[in-house]
Amino acid sequence: xxxxxxxxxxxxxxxxxxxxxxxxxxxxxxxxxxxxxxxxxxxxxxxxxxxxxxxxxxxxxxxxxxxxxxxxxxxxxxxxxxxxxxxxxxxxxxxxxxxxxxxxxxxxxxxxxxxxxxxxxxxxxxxxxxxxxxxxxxxxxxxxxxxxxxxxx
Length: 153
Description:
By secondary structure, the chain is an alpha+beta fold. The protein has a single domain, classed as Pnp Oxidase, Chain A (Roll). 26% of the residues lie in helices and 42% in strands. It has helices at 7-16, 52-59, 90-104, 124-130, and strands at residues 2-4, 19-25, 30-36, 38-39, 44-49, 62-72, 75-87, 136-151. Strands 1, 2, 3, 4, 5, 6, 7 and 8 form an 8-stranded antiparallel β-sheet that branches. Strand 4 and strand 5 (44-49) form a beta hairpin. The longest helix has 15 residues, at 90-104. The N and C termini lie close together (6 Å).
C-alpha cells in the first residue's frame, strides 16, 4: 500500500534522521548534496564550508530538502521540504551549532561535523595553528511546504 504521511509521521521522519539531501540551483544547473542536519520541529539546521553549495545558496535561497527511511524497496518513507535558506550569524549561529552538535555528537561523528572549527581562540599560537582550517557556516532552512509519502507491504 502506498499513501501520504500525516503531519506527525512527517515530523517523526525529519526528527529521527540526521542525513538528508539538500538541493539548490544556480538558475541553470541543479545541485544536490547529502548533508548532516537537525530538525527542531520548526527549522532544519546544518553547517557547511565555503564552496559551490554555499555560493549557490547565497544567490538563490529557494531549496528542496529530502529525507528517506528505507527498510527495503517495498517499505519506505520519504519527506520533501520546500523552503528557504538562511545563513546564521552571531547568537543565532551559536544556538544552531549547539542544537546540531547536541543531536549529532552522541552518534558516530563523521568528518563533516567539527565542533572545534567553531571554537574561538585568543592565543596567538592557536590562531596561527588554526589559520588554514576550514571555517564552517551555520544555516537553517525554513520549511514553506512539506510533503511525505510511504509504501508499506
